[in-house]
Amino acid sequence: MAMRQTPLTCSGHTRPVVDLAFSGITPYGYFLISACKDGKPMLRQGDTGDWIGTFLGHKGAVWGATLNKDATKAATAAADFTAKVWDAVSGDELMTLAHKHIVKSVDFTQDSNYLLTGGQDKLLRIYDLNKPEAEPKEISGHTSGIKKALWCSEDKQILSADDKTVRLWDHATMTEVKSLNFNMSVSSMEYIPEGEILVITYGRSIAFHSAVSLEPIKSFEAPATINSASLHPEKEFLVAGGEDFKLYKYDYNSGEELESYKGHFGPIHCVRFSPDGELYASGSEDGTLRLWQTVVGKTYGLWKCVLPEEDSGELAKPKMGFPETTEEELEEIASENSDSIYSSTPEVKA
Amino acid sequence: MQTPQAIPVPVPVLRLPRGPDGFSRGFAPGGRRALLRPEAPVAQKGPGQDSLESQEQQARAALRERYLRSLLAMVGHPVSFTLHEGVHVTAHFGATDLDVANFYVSQLQTPIGVQAEALLRCSDIISYTFKL
């Protein structure tokens, strides 16, 4: 039986969702944080999309959000010229880190001891979270606003993207190691630690580079301008979304377009696979997050696949308003109200 | 009628993701990660003040509930209102709006006649009484 994808829509935001991030897999499952122009980033349970809480405190649009590996801390980057660190269990604000311009990107190191920030002031900043009063270390060199800044190579290096370049920096020496130039605006960047792969999107291209050498591995062209792409943890698929409101799923090895999904009512700004690869989340200009199954029809999270033999007709019956109605009663009601079209006795036609 | 071939069936879902509750910032103590919360409150308040606040909150909730039930009990009954400037009017109570800013009444007896339907502004009312 062919199954059609049922995306799960997570509502709550009132303005476009511009960034989202998953945590690692914790003993309590995995979690998802969404950054929104309404200034109120939200934490959700990763496998169901259930809202857990909203981080209140920013006074401007939140452009970037991230969780640490065990989802105990969250960090957000906002248009109010601050980055904030939060306790992701209680929702309390732990630190406010003042910047000189809009902050766009935040990233924790694996041990959650340091926070990397980047924004419109063109500086990369490294904060020691155990010494919040100390001045951050600054790395300059970008000539336009930083859109994304990520730790890589076990936090020994830093990757940062501005409008037309992607740069690799050494953490210890704070100097530039390598850079890539693009003649189109870089819309997003994702780092995959296993395999040291960098996913970069620009124009209609989805490009894969080595995160160590920045050498290109491969690239695909999508039917429309892509704003974000994500590679599956097992590197079998990639998903991408952009200006035509659709989500595309490709086979990573062959580049073949496998599926495309309509659903969002606005451009897609961010897409990310969950840490177990079973679903991917998309954030859109329409203010919603949607969760999509990687394998359509699999029982996972809120998706419950019922095989024809198992299905006693329960899913087809209206559940609401008829809790006490038995199967026989339903049939009786149907026959009382039914037309001759539905009667079991065949009519003799002249 | 022949059954059409292979119409893709949408994957059934148990329910939709739960959204924000609309009145709190969330992070409920009863969540999956309740065990991770520190035992002592993180904020500056001591444990004694904490329970005082929760007692106050419970009292407020109880009073609010009683008031809302009183409004329910008033529906259809004649109510006499004391307005400003020593004006007294009686009417049959209908309903209030969400913020209790307006009282919808019928058969309002005013010094200049009877109004079939009227809206009384809460800010104009000093007090009102009715018999149960």
From TrEMBL, chain A:
WD repeats lie at residues 55-96, 96-137, 139-179, 261-293. One of its GO terms (cellular component) is nucleus. Residues 335-350 have a biased composition (Polar residues). It comes from the Eukaryota. Keywords: mRNA processing, mRNA splicing, Repeat, WD repeat. GO terms for molecular function: mRNA binding; signaling receptor binding; U2 snRNP binding. Residues 325-334 have a biased composition (Acidic residues). Residues 314-350 are annotated as: Disordered. The keyword Repeat applies. The keyword S-adenosyl-L-methionine does not apply. InterPro entries: WD40/YVTN_repeat-like_dom_sf, WD40_PAC1, WD40_repeat_dom_sf, WD40_rpt. One of its GO terms (biological process) is retinoic acid receptor signaling pathway. Part of the core SMN complex that contains SMN1, GEMIN2/SIP1, DDX20/GEMIN3, GEMIN4, GEMIN5, GEMIN6, GEMIN7, GEMIN8 and STRAP/UNRIP. Part of the SMN-Sm complex that contains SMN1, GEMIN2/SIP1, DDX20/GEMIN3, GEMIN4, GEMIN5, GEMIN6, GEMIN7, GEMIN8, STRAP/UNRIP and the Sm proteins SNRPB, SNRPD1, SNRPD2, SNRPD3, SNRPE, SNRPF and SNRPG. Interacts directly with GEMIN6 and GEMIN7. Associates with the SMN complex in the cytoplasm but not in the nucleus. Also interacts with CSDE1/UNR and MAWBP. Interacts with PDPK1. Interacts with TRIM48. Belongs to the WD repeat STRAP family. This is Serine-threonine kinase receptor-associated protein. It comes from Nannospalax galili (Northern Israeli blind subterranean mole rat). The gene is Strap.
From TrEMBL, chain B:
It holds the Pfam family Gemin7. Residues 66-132 form the Sm domain. PROSITE patterns: SM, SUZ_C. Keywords: Acetylation, Cytoplasm, mRNA processing, mRNA splicing, Nucleus. The keyword Cytoplasm applies. It is found in: Cytoplasm; Nucleus, Gem; Nucleus, Nucleoplasm. It comes from the Eukaryota. GO terms for molecular function: RNA binding. The keyword Acetylation applies. GO terms for biological process: spliceosomal snRNP assembly. GO terms for cellular component: cytosol; Gemini of Cajal bodies; SMN complex. Residues 1-31 form the SUZ-C domain. Part of the core SMN complex that contains SMN1, GEMIN2/SIP1, DDX20/GEMIN3, GEMIN4, GEMIN5, GEMIN6, GEMIN7, GEMIN8 and STRAP/UNRIP. Part of the SMN-Sm complex that contains SMN1, GEMIN2/SIP1, DDX20/GEMIN3, GEMIN4, GEMIN5, GEMIN6, GEMIN7, GEMIN8, STRAP/UNRIP and the Sm proteins SNRPB, SNRPD1, SNRPD2, SNRPD3, SNRPE, SNRPF and SNRPG. Interacts with GEMIN6; the interaction is direct. Interacts with STRAP/UNRIP; the interaction is direct. Interacts with GEMIN8; the interaction is direct. Interacts with SNRPB, SNRPD2, SNRPD3 and SNRPE; the interaction is direct. The SMN complex catalyzes the assembly of small nuclear ribonucleoproteins (snRNPs), the building blocks of the spliceosome, and thereby plays an important role in the splicing of cellular pre-mRNAs. Most spliceosomal snRNPs contain a common set of Sm proteins SNRPB, SNRPD1, SNRPD2, SNRPD3, SNRPE, SNRPF and SNRPG that assemble in a heptameric protein ring on the Sm site of the small nuclear RNA to form the core snRNP (Sm core). Belongs to the gemin-7 family. This is Gem-associated protein 7.
